[in-house]
Design the sequence.
């Protein structure tokens, strides 16, 4: 079959790479892709947030039998609904189910109603009441813009002055646009003795009946070493996660994953696709920090390379609601991804810098995020540019391999964290 993949980042490169290994897949199109994806797929230059345009393209391409929607924005807009209503097969939740990510207020309400462990919170749509709530509350406090904000709509405020400033940015200055019309104000979660809580991302396939977690991974969201600097889309990942043992996995399955699938069904919003659980280990057990309605980026870049089962087979099993019939298998060992970002990311950065890549060691692979080819020359085209990935027996071994190869890559202003894979693995 021929498959269309929607998206243009490192996550989509990893999905395209996994699909390209499937004996079921003949040809892959990617809308809109990047320079790395272009080596495996035919790029399609259509704005994937224009639902009508995507629908028309798929209608016109009778050779495409399946569409994978990877990014959050087209899912939130209802691209799955649009394509399904035109009779096409898709991977990705419909608009009502995708709200578990696109509205944090909805997600928090769901967790409260169904007793799924998460931080305590209140929701506000007017600045004055939000301000008076934080004035009478405890610090630190966490402010979250309700809608999608490129992973940047979360502010952790140490005192009233910061909280007032944050609420002003989100609700009055609209730093995240309409995403900030409503704000969720949350209790700050910690680990034991108020140390930062350990975090893990667990992506799971679900067809609305069965839920099958993938191997756990850990993201590094802050821009600089030691978790300093602003939140980003993710500066690097590793798998496995050392504290995520069988006991923790069972707790998450029973108290979080199964209840979430049941809650979405009970709300008349059955979720089909990948559910992403952003979790924190707290003294009271595992809690949900966030849900996403899709594969994570850059989590996917370390998770999918370890998948032994045919990804296309899993996608179809989800669409056809027969996920319980298949066995999903993973390689042993570890994988690390180090993100190379443009100078100034996540705030302000230039594009169009020439990228040079030396000979990479065997077993090291690159996933392109923001790249393009102009007259044959590879150039930067986004904030996160490349993910340098390596496998190893342990995270330490994979990490060493990845960093040895980071040194062979260059572009003007390139910055990356030097501590990916160190936390929780010491
Ligand atoms: P999110 O985009 O919701 O995943 O938030 C980004 C990051 O902010 C998370 O990975 C956590 O490190 C931190 N964070 C979010 N919510 C909380 C919370 N309630 N308590 C402590 N840290 C949080
Ligand atoms: N890496 C975080 C995310 O995909 O939302």
Sequence:
């Amino acid at each position: 079959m021929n498959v269309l993949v929607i998206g243009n980042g490192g996550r989509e490169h990893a999905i395209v790479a996994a699909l390209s290994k499937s004996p079921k897949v003949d040809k892959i199109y990617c809308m809109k892709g990047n320079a790395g994806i272009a080596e495996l797929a035919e790029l399609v230059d259509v704005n994937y947030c224009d639902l009508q345009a995507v629908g028309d393209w798929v209608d016109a391409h009778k050779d495409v039998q399946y569409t994978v929607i990877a990014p959050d924005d087209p899912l939130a807009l209802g691209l799955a609904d649009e394509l399904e209503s035109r009779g096409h097969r898709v991977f990705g939740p419909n608009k009502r189910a995708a709200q578990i990510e696109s509205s944090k207020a909805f997600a928090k309400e769901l967790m409260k109603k169904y007793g799924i462990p998460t931080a305590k919170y209140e929701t506000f749509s007017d600045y004055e009441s939000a301000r008076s709530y934080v004035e009478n509350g405890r610090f630190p406090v966490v402010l979250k813009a309700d809608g999608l904000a490129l992973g940047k709509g979360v502010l952790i405020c140490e005192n009233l002055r910061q909280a007032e400033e944050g609420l002003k940015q989100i609700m009055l200055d609209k730093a995240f646009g309409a995403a900030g019309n409503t704000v969720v104000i949350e209790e700050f979660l910690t680990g034991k003795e108020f140390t930062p809580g350990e975090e893990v991302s667990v992506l799971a396939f679900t067809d609305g009946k069965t839920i099958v977690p993938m191997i756990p991974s850990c993201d590094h969201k802050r821009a600089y070493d030691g978790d300093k600097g602003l939140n980003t889309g993710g500066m690097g990942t590793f798998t496995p996660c050392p504290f995520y043992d069988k006991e923790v996995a069972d707790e998450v399955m029973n108290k979080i994953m199964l209840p979430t699938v049941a809650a979405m069904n009970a709300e008349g919003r059955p979720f089909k696709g990948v559910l992403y659980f952003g979790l924190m280990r707290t003294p009271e057990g595992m809690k949900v920090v966030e849900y996403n309605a899709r594969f994570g980026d850059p989590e996917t870049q370390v998770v999918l390379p370890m998948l032994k089962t045919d990804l296309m087979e899993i996608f179809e099993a989800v669409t056809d609601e027969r996920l319980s019939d298949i066995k999903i298998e993973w390689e042993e060992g570890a994988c690390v991804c180090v993100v190379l970002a443009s100078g100034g990311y996540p705030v302000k950065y230039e594009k169009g810098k020439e990228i040079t890549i030396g000979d990479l060691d065997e077993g090291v692979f690159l996933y392109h995020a923001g790249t393009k080819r102009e007259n044959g020359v590879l150039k930067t085209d986004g904030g996160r540019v490349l993910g340098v990935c390596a496998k190893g027996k342990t995270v330490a071994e994979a990490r060493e391999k990845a960093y040895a190869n980071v040194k062979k890559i260059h572009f003007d202003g390139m910055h990356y964290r030097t501590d990916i894979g160190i936390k929780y693995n010491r």
In short: The CA atoms of residues 59 and 121 lie 44 Å apart. The first helix runs from residue 10 to 20.
